[in-house]
Amino acid sequence: MTSISSVQIRYSWASDPMSDQKTTSDTRERILDVAERLFMENGYEATSMRTITSAAEVNLAAVNYHFGSKEALLCEVFRRRLAWLNQQRLQALDELEAQAAGAPLKPSQILEAFFGTLLRMGEDPSLGGMTFLRLLGRTLTEPAEFIRTFFAGEYAQVIDRYKLALFRALPDVPKAEIVWRLHFMLGAMSYAIAGTDVLQVVTGCELGDLAGESADDPGDTALARRLAQRLMPFLLGGLRAPLPQFHELPFPSPPTPPPRGGRGDS
Amino acid sequence: MTSISSVQIRYSWASDPMSDQKTTSDTRERILDVAERLFMENGYEATSMRTITSAAEVNLAAVNYHFGSKEALLCEVFRRRLAWLNQQRLQALDELEAQAAGAPLKPSQILEAFFGTLLRMGEDPSLGGMTFLRLLGRTLTEPAEFIRTFFAGEYAQVIDRYKLALFRALPDVPKAEIVWRLHFMLGAMSYAIAGTDVLQVVTGCELGDLAGESADDPGDTALARRLAQRLMPFLLGGLRAPLPQFHELPFPSPPTPPPRGGRGDS
DNA sequence: GTCTATAGGTGGATAGAC
DNA sequence: GTCTATCCACCTATAGAC
User: Fold this and answer.
1) Is A78-239 in CATH node 1.10.357.10?
2) Which chain A residues in 61-90 lie under 8 Å from chain B, judged by CB atoms?
3) Which of A33, A60, A132, A257 could connect to A253 by a Cys-Cys bridge, CB 3.0–4.6 Å?
4) Which fold has domain A23-68?
5) Which string of DSSP letters, residue by residue, matches B228-240?
6) Does B60 contact strand C, using a CB cutoff of 7 Å?
7) Are B198 and A186 in contact (CB under 8 A)?
8) Which residue of A has its CA nearest to B239?
9) Residue A222: per-residue pLDDT
10) Which 199-258 positions of B have CB less than 7 A from strand D?
């Protein structure tokens, strides 16, 4: 019943513009869309159900009717996007591995499949666009327990597959090191897509400006594209950086070091 | 002790273990310490004044007496740490530039001064330790306006100095590109120190485990040190990565080029 | 400086009519 | 499915005694 033929399925990422209009529950989708935007703008805790329902022009009780609770609402906001995203990610990896016919993938391919797939969502408003990306970036650092366990469940498969792919792609790098760097890459991405950067307030500019789109505001689509173009080389550079040297020193090289030959940056 | 004579100054980072004990306001510091921890554990919005005051064993009204409001309390929690941190960062840069005698600094030196100075705070409980680092990482992605403008003010000078240093250190890299990468580096660091990673829940391990400290728990000190050893090479690798190629392609190289239609979920 | 008491408001959730 | 009305726990902030 859930997935086939003409029945209404629960994930709105299956929304063609036509079926979206007046199906069984216009309300449900409107709540999700508005909640997505408001959670992004104000954060989860600071966004009240009343704010959401009045912006969505639905009754307060509708949220609890459709989703059960505020927590469940947030989870559903993510589920409808992440289900699609993670499926795409797995599929992308499948295809790459099929092409490679048993050979290890290149790191750049793996990163493209993982991060590129996400960043491309920012270009497509029907997939949530930058609103969803920003919300995701912000929510990934929320301390609330239910959020963290929810994400863990959503990501478990995907992270595991990609970890293994990276292990194979970088056989000379210790696995622990790869996991650390995956961690760092996730961080750089989250923060970048969250777009709440100190830099932006300090420099008084948005990422769009940096991309060179100062006046005519090309919108989120171009921003997402530029972001991807800038971020991917950075991530790849970080992933493939020389391994840290472990001596007995408490720190690699304090500000005024013995200038021992590290990796000779000029 | 830190600066002048014997007057009590307001920043607790001027705390030698002795002066901290029973000065004019033990209450004030206790509130700040407890607030720092609880804001880190639950986030700003989800932490109530009542929770803070009861944990600190002070009266509810004490917070408003000493700080004026909950927002002001959060700002003061940060100010007492960031004042010290940013001063150290500027000083580190001053010293490096003095040594260099007019020559551009090496990127690794700049990163060490900026990120190393911060990460070393994680090793020193009297500077807030990992509690402060985690709180900082989490708060940097909070959408609340007062937080963002507060950080902007605290960081303006420092970011500006470091940006200029990086421009000089990497004269062949477009300035916009450097700013983007600074952005990415801040993100990787924030996320790493926040320690709310999906990876940790998925893999079921803390960063400490990855560092190889499985059983005997050496505490935050070792964690901070390991983190720095792992993070700095990653950041340097990302900063020095090859520049992105800009062709007319909308994306560098999608894995399966134009599968545009519908949502292609098979 | 510290405390009690409370003002004054908002939060999430639900019961029950339609 | 939708709506009104309402419960009640909890919030920040302050007034005023000590």
Assistant:
1) yes
2) 84, 87-88
3) A257
4) Arc Repressor Mutant, subunit A (1.10.10)
5) HHHHHHHHHHHHT
6) yes
7) yes
8) A234
9) 86
10) none
pLDDT tier, A186 (very low <50, low <70, confident <90, very high otherwise): very high
Q: What are the pLDDT digits (tens) for B221-253? A: 888 899 999 999 999 999 999 998 875 445 544
Q: Is B161 on the interface with A (CB under 8 A)?
A: no
Q: Which residue of B37, B117, B170, B191 is the best one to mutate when testing the A interface, meaning the one whose CB has the most A CBs within 10 A?
A: B191
- Give yes or no for a contact between B197 and B206, defined as CB atoms under 8 angstroms apart: no
Crossing angle of helices B145-169 and B70-100, in 10° steps, is 10
Q: Read off the amino acid at residue A19.
A: S
Phi, psi of B46, rounded to the nearest 5 degrees: -80, -5
> What is the model's pLDDT at position A216?
53
A241's torsion region: left (phi>0), alpha (psi -120 to 50) or beta?
A: beta
* Chain A neighbors of B82, CB-CB under 8 A: none
Record: fold of B79-239: Tetracycline Repressor; domain 2 (1.10.357)
Q: Which CATH class is domain B24-68?
A: mainly alpha
Q: Does A137 touch chain B (CB under 8 A)?
A: yes
Facing B233 at nearest CB: one of A183, A232, A241: A241
pLDDT bin (cut points 50, 70, 90) of residue B210 is low
List the B32 CA – C18 C1' distance (angstroms): 53
End-to-end CA distance of chain B: 69
Q: What is the pLDDT of residues B79-116, one digit of tens each?
A: 999 999 999 999 999 999 999 999 999 999 999 999 99
Burial of B149 (0-12, 13-18, 19+ CB in 10 A): exposed
Q: Which nucleotides of D are covered by protein (CB under 7 A)?
A: 1-6, 10-16
